[in-house]
Design brief:
10-stranded mixed sheet, two-stranded parallel sheet, binds iron/sulfur cluster
Length: 372
């Protein structure tokens, strides 16, 4: 039997939704009502869109999908501050999303691809290869799921079978609970540029989710073309570049795409970006014991970044079990930071989050699927 394909509502622009509704003979304001349910009231199911006529709700239920994510696994760190989800997409692939609850920040880390083709040797996702790009709706849906979770934590309020409340209870006049978004989960966002940016525009659009662009950071392994394209975007999304090594020999070992885009090309694109946007760039550096954390490499990194409008985030690696890549000792990490600071390169030591859960990108998926 032929099963008709469902229209995914989160793939549509506001005009696209209006066109769909018009083709059903519905007035424009019905599209605006549905838009508000999706992005402001966080409805995951048209059944809960109570101000729509019953026949319209039924048509939406039968022919559309409001939420492409099916929660199949949830992990929570022992301190309760990091929650990691494994979602199944409509075609059966899985992706990870992480919610981090700091004192004054509530940040969601979202994925842009199912898998990744960049092959970073210390990353579980990098070992599996790329299955496909996520759609803009699948990227946006991760943010909506996290916001829903903020509004109705599943341990305090009624929830659906899959652990996520079906309909948010907050009116559009109440501010967002999420404070920050990091595009730092599975995948390389600049390798899925158009869909990622379509999602980011929807997330920051005041008529849609409405979280200001300055609260969003996109992290890339350093694709020069994509970095230059970002400089032309009107949205002021923050740029973070995962460097992890200050010379090509070591970086190519850790981040194989460096073979195609060596450090000089990445730095030239970053300097172009800074020249055009006047915005500070963050460099991510995952500290790995005995691999990239020596004083000599810290001095080399300081030389590379001297005079660049930037900030370095030092992150002791979230290790994969049985991997030769393990986090730096606290002493080595502190010494590394000190050398950067003495050389006037601002650097912050970031805490590893969710160390007792599979918080490193791709680790939960690997474990649940039996791969590690
Ligand atoms: S670290 Fe990021 S870019 Fe590298 S393989 Fe993992 S997901 Fe891809």
């Amino acid at each position: 039997m032929h099963v008709p394909e469902l229209t995914s509502l989160l793939e549509l622009t506001q005009d696209g939704l209006a066109q769909l509704l018009a083709s059903w003979g519905q007035p424009r304001y019905r599209a605006d009502q549905i838009w508000e349910w999706l992005y402001r009231k966080l409805a995951a199911d048209p059944a809960g869109m109570t101000n729509l006529p019953k026949e319209l709700r039924e048509r939406l239920i039968v022919t559309t999908r409001a939420d492409p994510l099916d929660l199949i696994y949830q992990q929570r760190s022992s301190d309760g501050q990091t929650i990691k989800w494994l979602f199944r997409l409509p075609d059966g692939l899985t992706i990870e999303t992480v919610l981090m609850l700091y004192d004054e920040r509530r940040t969601v880390c979202i994925s842009t691809q199912a898998g990744c083709s960049m092959g970073c040797v210390f990353c579980a996702t990098g070992q599996t290869g790329l299955a496909r790009n996520l759609t803009s709706g699948e990227i946006v849906a991760q943010v909506l799921a996290a916001e829903r979770r903020m509004i109705a934590p599943s341990d305090r309020q009624p929830k659906t079978d899959d652990g996520i409340p079906a309909v948010g209870s907050r009116s559009s006049s109440v501010g967002r609970r999420l404070t920050n978004i990091v595009v730092m989960g599975m995948g390389e966002p600049l390798a899925n540029y158009d869909r990622t940016w379509a999602a980011l525009r929807r997330i920051s659009d005041p008529d849609a989710f409405g979280l200001g662009a300055r609260h969003t950071t996109l992290s890339t392994v350093g694709l020069p073309q994509g970095i230059r394209k970002m400089a032309d975007e009107p949205l002021q999304i923050n740029l973070a570049v995962s460097l992890h090594a200050p010379n090509d020999e070591l970086r190519t070992q850790l981040v194989p795409v460096n073979h195609r885009y060596p450090i000089a090309e990445v730095m030239a694109a970053v300097k172009d970006y800074i020249g055009r946007t006047h915005r500070r760039v963050t460099f991510e550096y995952a500290l790995m014991n005995g691999i990239n954390d020596t004083p000599a490499l810290a001095r080399q990194l300081a030389g590379l970044l001297k005079g660049v409008l930037c900030h370095v985030n030092l992150i002791p690696l979230n290790p994969i079990a049985e991997s030769p890549y393990q986090p730096s000792s606290p002493e080595n990490a502190a010494a590394f930071q000190k050398i950067l600071e003495v050389n006037r390169v601002p650097a912050t030591m970031r805490m590893r989050r969710g160390i007792d859960i599979d918080a490193g990108c791709g680790q939960l998926r690997r474990r649940v699927s039996g791969g590690g």
